[in-house]
Amino acid sequence: MLLAGLGHLAIAGGGWPQPKNKGFFKIGQYVLVSDQYFAPSGDILDIATAGIYITSLYGEYGLTDRLTAVAYVPFFTRATLNEQVSGLTGNVLEEGDEVNSFGDTDLGLKYGLITNKPIVVSATLTFGLPLGNSSGGNTGVLQTGDGEFNQMISIDASRSFAKGKYYVSAMLGFNNRSKNFSDELRYGLEVGYTFGPKLFAALKLTGIKSLRNGSDFEAPSNGIFSNNLEYLALTPEVSYSFNEKFGISGAIGTAFSGRRILARPAYSLGFFMKI
Fold this sequence. Notes:
mainly beta, Porin, twelve-stranded antiparallel beta barrel, about 0% helix, globular
């Protein structure tokens, strides 16, 4: 499962590669807890409360002025399922469950196709490594990964205005998935604005569309690792820089529509460093 779009800081990305020997690094916490679920039909169903908590490292480093190494490493991922209790008798109908492990990791290379122009364009090849647990807990239904190796090619185009005070970016990607998972189209639109030397805000619209060319199985899932998963989400994000190197960011992502995904807002908080 490629987790791009789950809270990476907006200012580290788009069509701009990192300059040579420069970089951006963030340690982040992602939280999604929900008692509702977008069914395969798109309808919202009530479920036992499920949660996913991801502590991760994200980094971009310029190998050259055009070529940037990109990594997303969820070094601690926790998935939970609350116990179910009868409203009439108070008896426990189903025990709670949990799993803690390393998560699926993304490694990629971004290459600047068009640089030093009003509109910059880059291409990124990302490999999704199945290092998480695809069938965890006592029930075997909790996941910290989907168990399949995938590869995504994406194109980003960006333009800044007013001497870099604000920008617009667009992304389109194709994600090839293994183990009979359906391939996906990924897409996104982002606008960002700098209020001053320390405060920055962005608004991101991101989506996944399944091509439904694999099996129609519904893997055991806590809402972000399913086969044929789909969503359209809006994420406002704010960052504050303490100085030229260090800062903090926060974001809230809400899905307008979806299939096979938890139906509650996702929260992320991160501390970043620039070199």
